[in-house]
Amino acid sequence: MASETPILSIVGVTKTFGGLVAVNDLSMDIHEGEAVGLMGPNGAGKTTIITIISGQYKPDRGMIKFKGNDISGLPPHSICHLGISRTYQIPQPFGNLTALQNIAVAAMYGKGVGKAAAEAEASKIIDIVGLSDKRDVPARDLMAITLKRLELARALATNPKLLLIDEVAAGLIETEIPRLLNILKEVRSMGITYILIEHVLKVMMEAVDRVTVIDYGTKIAEGKPSEVMEDKKVITAYFG
Ligand SMILES: Nc1ncnc2c1ncn2[C@@H]1O[C@H](COP(=O)(O)OP(=O)(O)OP(=O)(O)O)[C@@H](O)[C@H]1O
Ligand SMILES: [Mg+2]
User: Fold this and answer.
1) Residue to mutate, 20, 58, 212, 216, ligand 1, most ligand atoms under 8 Å from C-beta
2) Please, are residues 162 and 66 in contact by the beta-carbon 8 Å criterion?
3) Which domains does the chain have, with CATH numbers?
4) How far is the centre of ligand 1, averaged over its atoms, from the C-alpha of 108 (Å)?
5) Which residue from 50, 65, 86, 179 has the least number of CB within 10 angstroms?
6) pLDDT tens, residue by residue, 104-118
7) Is the overall model pTM greater than 0.85, yes or no?
């Protein structure tokens, strides 16, 4: 594994907002087929990292390499077409379009296919995320929790090789967690590599191979989920 070119390399990336250093000289490699967790307290810089990877923010320093090629500076649609897709912590659907139409629009955008092919693709994906019964409901009428699954579906519809998932379990009740874990398993079986940002520990423990923990934009620990949870630096970052 280690000798292969990583699917994604974050190389010394720094991002500041005014005087605030949101991401501080961060480096990490992700290999094809891996599921990697990204943890850290509120404001640690997790969302900023995936916003940089997906091209909406440019890093101040450092670069992002996808399959060995520098992609930092490419516009978001080019990065999407290369095979990187993200979800948003706050879902951003088209409220007046149905669940199925929202997914189909993402398929048209990401795959460059026509309406009929996009709707066929959307029908497959809506099954995977378990929203078939909501297919004709306008997104504005869906509950917040359902919108999280629609976010995942929209990201999947662009046919990603690498999926960046930002807190998709937030707000789920206990009994809904196994269903989400099954969806993530299905995503893996589709051959998709993912980075998962998650505060829900049960999800993190079961859905990733390893975890990187950041605090104030700096990596403070990495390893197996069970190991990093016991790391003193991690406990201090979360609980002071
Ligand atoms: N567009 C922006 N302009 C100014 N500051 C920003 C911007 N985006 C993020 N920040 C700041 O950068 C830091 C990192 O934010 P980020 O959203 O990446 O954290 P996070 O780890 O995703 O937190 P959370 O767990 O709350 O989602 C925070 O201090 C945040 O206020
Ligand atoms: Mg965030």
Assistant:
1) 20
2) yes
3) 1-83+160-240 (3.40.50.300), 93-158 (no CATH)
4) 30
5) 179
6) 999 998 888 899 999
7) yes
